[in-house]
Amino acid sequence: MNTNIEITDKIIIEPKLELPTRDTGATVEFRGIVRETEDENCIQGLDYEAYKDMAIAKMTTILSDLLVKHDCLTGVVIHRVGFIPVGESALYMRITSSHRKEAFSCCSEFIDELKKDVPIWKAN
Description:
The protein is of the alpha+beta class. The chain has helices at 52-69, 100-117, and strands at 2-8, 26-33, 37-38, 41-42, 45-50, 72-80, 82-85, 89-97, 120-122. The strands form 3 sheets. A 4-stranded mixed sheet has the order 1-6-8-2. It has a 3-stranded antiparallel sheet with strand order 7-5-9. The chain has a two-stranded antiparallel sheet with strand order 3-4. β3 and β4 form a beta hairpin. α1 (52-69) packs antiparallel against α2. 27% of the residues are buried.
């Protein structure tokens, strides 16, 4: 099991895919993209802030636990902070596993936990 967590103020560039084992049968990728409306108002983008060290530690714990729970192999998470224009990614995530069901479940559950427990938020 391997994790890679990053918080950046740069445009998210998808990391090169390296399969962790020959048993890797699924890769699930997710991008959280800034849409043009927020609370029914048109926007130019979103501004994210974070307690970086705390957020990385919390995401690492959550992701590590979920990789074990869902029997997945690797997890990559990149979260962007600062101003993010409409149409650009605020979050990138990749999960690898032997089977798709586990990878999808891990990815979905991670995002739920991220929104609930990680100190990253939309600034006003």
